[in-house]
Predict the 3D structure of the following.
Amino acid sequence: MKNILYYFYQITVGQIHRINDNYWFEINGFPYFFTPLTVSYDEINTIYSLLMDNQSKNLSLFHTIIVNKMNQIVTSFEQKNYVLLKLSLPLNQLNLTPSIYDLSLNQYVQIEKKYYSITRDYWKNLWEKKIDYFESEVFQIDYKFPLLLESAAYYIGLGENAISYLNYVIMTAKKDNRDYLVVSHRTCHSFSSLLEYKNPMNIVLDHYVRDIADYLKYVFWNDIYHLEEIKQFLNQLNLSDYGAGLLVSRLLFPSTYFDLCFDIFANYQKEEKISSFIARTSEFESFFKDIFDILRKKNSLKDIDWITNPHINRN
């Protein structure tokens, strides 16, 4: 690895630490991360241009992409593609979870149209595909995953509720000058640590509420949320009715559940892990209701019947 780094980047390093396919080292006290490429070539080039064009703005808080001596972002090594990142934080801070107030940092960075290729605002299509794939898998192998089968109907119903709510918002709520694309994050996993949160390969463009909803789902399902802090943050938001409706629908869609199920199907996780979702169903409904009630104090939102009347079936 030392030879690879010297040949491609003209840098000499001492000790290198390896975790799976990731390599860590320091140069003059600054940490670096040589990590596999997780997006397409077109995407990483667009992300790099976006960051370079906005260095004076909050986007400079992301880890810095270092190009190699051929002025290329991607370096091939052992039949894999890698990107070298200069990390924006000391090593002892990288495993910390982002604060909810970090979500505001990129809100006011205006995005030029030439970067719109990394937009990910087509939620409805993605959600429908997730549900279809989940149904095709779980009902074919129910004998193998009885716990998944037990919870499937509830979470499919939750997902369908989210899609219906999203459709209603898109058809009835008007966008205004608060509804524009901002730098956002690819998945809920992006909030697992500052290492991931500041990783430029996790950048997508979307509405500001994407990150809020995904952050709330991450901290809830990992049981590290502080409700009073969340309430304080939400009370400071200035969302349009359209934005508030998007936040409700995205928070409602159980992407964390489906992603865990997909990992179980692929044998990356054990089925028993789904028990935590089943055990915390009522707690999530209460959490969601708290968020919904805060938002509708300032925004016009369509009622969700199974919240206002808990005796109504949510499927």
